[in-house]
Amino acid sequence: MKEHVLKTWPIFFTAVWQGDKTFEIRKNDRDFQVGDILRLREWEPEDEVYTGREVRREVTHIMVTFADVLAPGYVVLSIAKPKRNQYQDVPLPSGYQPIEVYTNGRELVVLGDPPEEGDEPIRHNCDEMGCASTFHVVLRVRLTNMVGRIVL
């Protein structure tokens, strides 16, 4: 298994991040394999800078032959959230299950499901944590004083 770091324009990045886009069409110059991880980094082409947002997806299928659609040397990669626990070293509150980890350049944000206590999920202050309607923010870590690279 390899990790491939790839630039992704904002319109495509957002669609992957939201779960609407489950494929990538890429030049096959990296020997992509099923099980590889794509680290998609949002790239702003007009300013030629990374925005700081990134997401990881696992390659689940590779289509290499479809002559009428694909140019020679290109592949369609089916992608999904990684099955393996990519977050085992992230210190989450007890019982929380991670769903997604991303950075906005200033902080590391972990989205997840709150643990169940009986039939009810444990509550926390969604306004304070900045939760979306679909996922709960279970951890925020400021990146301002950190040195080195965070590997999840």
How large a portion of the residues is in β-strands, by DSSP E? 35-45%
- Class based on secondary structure composition and strand pairing: mainly beta
- Major sheet description: 5 strands, mixed
CATH superfamily of the largest domain: Hypothetical protein
Number of helices: 2
Main features:
single chain; 152 residues; mainly beta; Archaeosine Trna-guanine Transglycosylase, Chain: A, domain 4; five-stranded mixed β-sheet; three-stranded antiparallel β-sheet; disordered C terminus
Can you offer a commentary on this structure?
The chain is mainly beta and 152 residues long. The protein has 2 domains: 3-80, Archaeosine Trna-guanine Transglycosylase, Chain: A, domain 4 (Roll), CATH 2.30.130.30; 85-152, no CATH class. It is built from 2 helices and 10 strands. The protein has helices at 10-17, 126-129; strands at residues 3-8, 23-27, 37-44, 49-63, 74-80, 97-103, 107-113, 116-117, 120-121, 136-142. It has a 5-stranded mixed β-sheet. A 3-stranded antiparallel β-sheet has the order 6-7-10, with no helix packed on it. Strand 6 (97-103) and strand 7 form a beta hairpin.
Describe the protein's topology.
Layout: E1 3-8, H1 10-17, E2 23-27, E3 37-44, E4 49-63, E5 74-80, E6 97-103, E7 107-113, E8 116-117, E9 120-121, H2 126-129, E10 136-142
Parallel strand pairs: 1-3
Antiparallel strand pairs: 2-5, 3-4, 4-5, 6-7, 7-10, 8-9
Would you kindly provide a brief summary of this structure?
The protein has 152 residues and is mainly beta.
